[in-house]
Amino acid sequence: MSKRKAEDTEVDKMATAEKVPQNDYTIGLVDPVKDYQKLIETRVQVDEIVDDDVTKENFDRTAAAARDVIWRLLFDEAATSQSNVEKASQLLEEYRGDACFYDPTPYNEWIVKLRDEVLKRELLDFWRETLVKKQLGPCWSRDCDLFDSDDTPPLEFYAHAGCTAPFAASLKVRAALEEEQGDPAVPTTPGELSADDSAALSGEFEAVLTKENPLEEYRTLMKRFVLTKIIVPDNVHQESIKKMASAAREIIWKLLFDGTPSPEDQDKAAELLREYKGDAGFYGPQDYNEWIVQLRDEVLKKELFDFWREKMVKLELGPSCARDSDYYDNEDPLPLDFYDKAGCKAPFEANSSN
Fold first, then answer.
1. What is the distance between the alpha carbons of residues 67 and 91, in angstroms, rounded to a whole number?
2. Which residues, in sequence order, are CB contacts of 23 under 8 Å at separation 6+?
3. What is the DSSP string of 212-249?
4. At what angle do helices 104-120 and 82-102 cross, to 10 degrees?
5. Which pLDDT score is estimated for 175?
6. Does residue 9 carry a pLDDT above 70?
7. CA dihedral defined by 3, 4, 6, 7, rounded to 10 degrees?
8. Please, what is the average pLDDT of the chain?
9. pLDDT tens string 292-347
10. Whose CA is closest to 86, among 161, 31, 166?
11. Where does residue 220 fall: left (phi above 0), alpha (psi -120 to 50 degrees), or beta otherwise?
12. Rounded distance, CA 78 to CA 58, Å?
């Protein structure tokens, strides 16, 4: 096959998936995300029918180039700057997303080395705001179909420098840990109950969240009144879950629509929305799935396009589906239409056709 110049037509730009020399997989420091995406488009996501082994090898070469550039952006003292740290963060997000689909093993091995080097050099802002907050640790069953549901969540990866995994408080993980530890239920004799357990048993508690710290308040209330070790009647338990969900929806709405939301308010809303979606996917997603459409419509009506693109679409905060809830199976349709607004597409749309 003859070589083609970069300025050729779009059809000519379609590179074949033939194996190419390693030095043709180049990612620069100026715009690494753009370079990486071009390699993915021209070496991996090609229109031609090619052998899976070739696709995997081409991705692995692209991934190796990404790892090298991320390392240089973060750790080459001559190149380190806030701009380069942001570039590394953006490229790492892109790479992890693709690794979950194509080949997570090299990523999972390398990200531990990256974490160790980040902590060794005391890049604590990058650790907290990028690796932990954006959950860029090892791929696992929650975000990669190549692992089964019995896969162990990578809790230990995040348990450094005073941090914990953002999903450590999720109901599914907590339930799994309690089952593994064989922790017996606390007796429900009234005289032996704490005030919180009595409130959990009756369902009589105030579920109030504020704009100041809604995520932590939500987690605290869930731990006190829902994630209890006492035996609570099913109907009371379900009502408590609904009460917490209602409180989450109310404060998210206020954060976004009581006046013009600040970037901080949008971050708070997105963090709580992500937590609420995870819990809804475990206990029952129907109410969430109905409400999130209303939230999307209001977000677009108010022209909060950054929140739409960077939070709701990028973080996949649309309706629960088989990707994130055991209430659905792989035969249930994915909510592609939900994301097909304001020039966006579902992040998983390309993978859903495979």
1. 9
2. none
3. SSHHHHHHHHHHHHTS-SB---HHHHHHHHHHHHHHHH
4. 150
5. 56
6. no
7. 160
8. 83
9. 999 999 999 999 999 999 999 999 999 999 888 877 877 789 999 999 999 999 98
10. 31
11. alpha
12. 30
Task: Spell out a b/e string for 58-79, using b for 16 or more CB atoms within 10 Å of the CB, else e.
Answer: bbbbbbebbbebbebbbbeeee
Question: What distance lies between CA 155 and its chain's CA centroid?
Answer: 14
* Strand partners of residue 230: 186
Bridge partners for 186 per DSSP:
230
Query: Could you please report the per-residue DSSP string of 259-280?
Result: SSPPHHHHHHHHHHHHHHHHHH
Helix (H, G, I), strand (E, B) or coil at 149: coil
Task: Please give the pLDDT value at position 20.
Answer: 41
Measured from the Cβ of residue 273, the count of other Cβ atoms closer than 10 Å reads: 25
Q: Are 170 and 139 a contacting pair, CB within 8 Å? A: no
156-180 pLDDT, tens digit per residue, is: 898 888 777 777 655 454 554 455 5
Residue 18, Ramachandran bin (φ over 0: left; ψ between -120 and 50: alpha; else beta): beta
Among the listed residues 127, 235, 353, 221, the one whose alpha carbon sits nearest the alpha carbon of residue 336: 353
Give the pLDDT confidence score for residue 169 in this predicted structure. 54
Structure-token pair, residue 323: 């990707």
Cα(193)–Cα(202) distance, integer angstroms: 12
The per-residue DSSP string of 62-130 comes to HHHHHHHHHHHHHH-TTT--HHHHHHHHHHHHHHHHHHHHH-HHHHHHHHHHHHHHHHHTT-HHHIIII
Name the E strands within 147-189: none
| Collapsed DSSP state (helix, strand, coil) of residue 186 | strand
Given a cut of 70, is residue 53 above it in pLDDT?
Answer: yes
Query: Measured between alpha carbons, how far is 196 from 223 in angstroms, rounded to an integer?
Result: 10
Q: Cα(27)–Cα(64) distance, rounded to whole angstroms?
A: 10
CA proximity to 167, closest of 322, 313, 271, 287: 271
